[in-house]
Amino acid sequence: MKLFAVFGNPIKHSQSPIIHNLFAKQTGILQNYTKIYVPINNFYEKIFYFFKNGGIGANITTPFKKEAYKFCNIITTRAKYAGVVNTIKITNSKKFLGDNTDGIGLLKDLQNLKFINSTSNILLIGAGGAAQGIIYPLIKFGCNITVINRTYQNAKNIVEYFNNIKKINCLKLEDLFINLDNTIKYNLIINATSSSIKGNIPNIPSSIINQDVFCYDLFYNIKITPFLKWCINHGAKKISDGIGMLIEQAAYSFYLWHGIMPNTKIIIQKYKKYN
User: Fold this and answer.
1) 183 falls in which pLDDT band (50, 70, 90)?
2) Are the C-beta atoms of residues 112 and 244 closer than 8 Å to each other?
3) Which of 5, 13, 60, 217 has the least C-beta neighbours within 10 A?
4) What number of other Cβ atoms are within 10 A of residue 222's Cβ?
5) Cα-trace Rg, the chain
6) What is the mean pLDDT of residues 164-178?
7) If residue 47 lies in a helix (H) or strand (E), which one and from where to where?
8) Domains of the chain, first to last
9) How far is residue 153 from each of residues 157, 163, 192, measured CA to CA in Å?
């Protein structure tokens, strides 16, 4: 049986085995997918051991995505722009192919929800790894992205990272508050900060929220996230957390390994029964 795993620290909370087992059942593919806890500073040893002993593919989660990028011999374009790898496949020539499925998974979920089109103006809150990891597929789709962050220099760094692409810019947080009448009207607001994990809300003006603005939180929870609750309280009607993105990005990993794309809409319905 083919061996797959998700590597992380912590890893106990990971839903990947449930999702990938549902994919396998749906497609009739036999596989063994497990969680592997990796002590900090022990990633390379663990991943080498896994592939040396029959591993075919791996998902990588926090905090090892940058190390996974360095580990791989071949990097896909979207992983290169993301700067991190969340999916690894061993090739027939025993090379390690690194991909990033987060951005394409988000785009697919946004399309399923009808939250996005090729002319959407997106306000992206956050300038960390989660934000950088999703930008390239959104720009490639045609969207314009404005990045804001508590530390403006970090937002500038992300824009400079995509220096050969015109559809991304950044804005100082205070300018978002001051120039409300002159700023672009955003069609979609994406929270890519860790604020919801901590029970906090990003510092953005409530006046940019209205019933026509789509609000999306990369974080997911059984209950509504603090950011989405705040959006609803200020007039948002169309909201979603990141559960669909989680399943869609997993589906692109599955496709990279097996060449078969699962029916994710069915999986999302089934998956929610586990929570």
Assistant:
1) low
2) yes
3) 13
4) 8
5) 19
6) 86
7) helix 43-52
8) 2-100+244-274 (3.40.50.10860), 103-241 (3.40.50.720)
9) 6, 15, 17
Contacts for 56 with CB less than 8 Å, ≥ 6 apart? 2, 3, 4, 89, 90, 257
Catalytic status, residue 65: yes
Q: Give the H or E element holding residue 189.
A: strand 188-191
Both structure tokens of 194: 């860790």
What's the whole-number mean pLDDT along residues 42-60?
Answer: 97
- Rounded Cα distance, 15 and 27, in Å: 19
Give the integer Cα–Cα distance in Å for 135 and 104. 9
pLDDT, tens only, 230-255: 999 999 999 999 999 999 999 999 99
Show the tokens assigned to 182: 């002159």
How many CB atoms lie under 10 A from the CB of residue 17? 16
Q: Which of 46, 65, 172, 185 is catalytic?
A: 65
CB-CB contact of 212 with 156 (8 Å): no
Closest CA to 123 of 35, 44, 186: 186
> What pLDDT is attached to residue 275?
47
Minimal CA–CA distance to 87: which of 258, 271, 252, 260?
A: 252
- What does the block give as tokens for 133? 């990891």
- Structure tokens of 190? 């994406």
CB 33 within 8 A of CB 17: yes
Cβ partners under 8 Å of residue 122, min gap 6 = 116, 138, 143, 144, 145, 146, 186, 187, 188, 189, 190
- Cα(172)–Cα(153) distance, integer angstroms: 9
